[in-house]
Amino acid sequence: MIADNSVGVVAPQRFYSDVPLTLKSGAQLPGFELVFETYGTLNAARSNAVLVCHALSGNHHVAGIASDNPKNLGWWDNLVGPGKPLDTRKFFVVGVNNLGGCFGSTGPLSRNPETGKHYGADFPLVMVEDWVAAQARLADHLGIEAWAAVIGGSLGGMQALEWSLQFPERIRHAIAIASAPKLSAQNIAFNEIARQAILSDPDFHDGHYAEYGVVPERGLRLARMIGHITYLSDDQMNEKFGRQMRYDQHTYNYDVDFEIESYLRYQGDKFAGFFDANTYLMTTKTLDYFDPAYAYGGDLAAALVRVRADFLVVSFSTDWRFSPARSREIVFALLKNRRRVAYAEIDCVAGHDSFLLNDAHYHAVLRAYLENIAV
């Protein structure tokens, strides 16, 4: 039975642009396809559209039940739907799988029109700026001149920030959750270790593993295990697992002794079963490169001069990968430019993954802000 506050069963849609897209790197795609889903109804004035941007391992399936899999619930279903903080009775919500993704949008798993083979490692690096440029074409296709809001967590928050920079006249509100204006050296280091795990997998074949009919599962598995540790807080790990053993006594070997080991192996195996290694490599590099202040000598306030949107910035107390201090950098830079910005730091034990959870305080903040957006 589908709950009353669910958007219900949702089928993906496809948008194809045959206009070449020049990427920030200088490479060019002759055309591209984006897979997306929509929830709610676009009003007559086309003024109630909200774009949801996903994080590293996310996709277009934001809410509801996937039409091809009744067990596949949208990754932000607790937030999006009738009566939920992002209320589909008021807003027309769009979720899109980013360019370069592995859930149907043009990416490394797609066929290269020049060779007829999978792009693999030949797919060019796509930056946050390129994602936003592609999303703007989707907005044109949907007849949306300006978003009421662009919202996202983690890497999705970076996209919301980039929308306010690249298309300041096409976004009225930006909501950046558990995000940062750029990665720290520690974050870049974690990403590099994850990439090396994939690149050193014997089944990687220089990124052309699809032509060999294999997947670099070992590398992907390790990459996800590394990443997953950084998404959780120490408090949450202790609360969920502590030093709980799987057996009554030590086994004195390299198999699983502790429950946390079992959990990480499970997460790694699951991830390797559905995510593409080249997409993972590309997306972590996308994270590393994002830095709006780079062209301004590191001055974020100078980079944000052209912003016109109002902002809500949300951070979480135990998020050590995208700490509250990083969110406050965005807030202070916006205030220097006399922009309207609201900020909330949520006390939550779940670390970086808090932005995905149904925390009452967090959802109350989002609900209050979204209710005050005029459409």
From TrEMBL:
Homodimer. The active site is at 154 (nucleophile), 319, 352. Transfers a succinyl group from succinyl-CoA to L-homoserine, forming succinyl-L-homoserine. This is Homoserine O-succinyltransferase. It comes from Dentiradicibacter hellwigii. Its EC number is 2.3.1.46. SUPFAM superfamilies: alpha/beta-Hydrolases. InterPro entries: AB_hydrolase_1, AB_hydrolase_fold, HAT_MetX-like. Pfam families: Abhydrolase_1. HAMAP family: MetX_acyltransf.
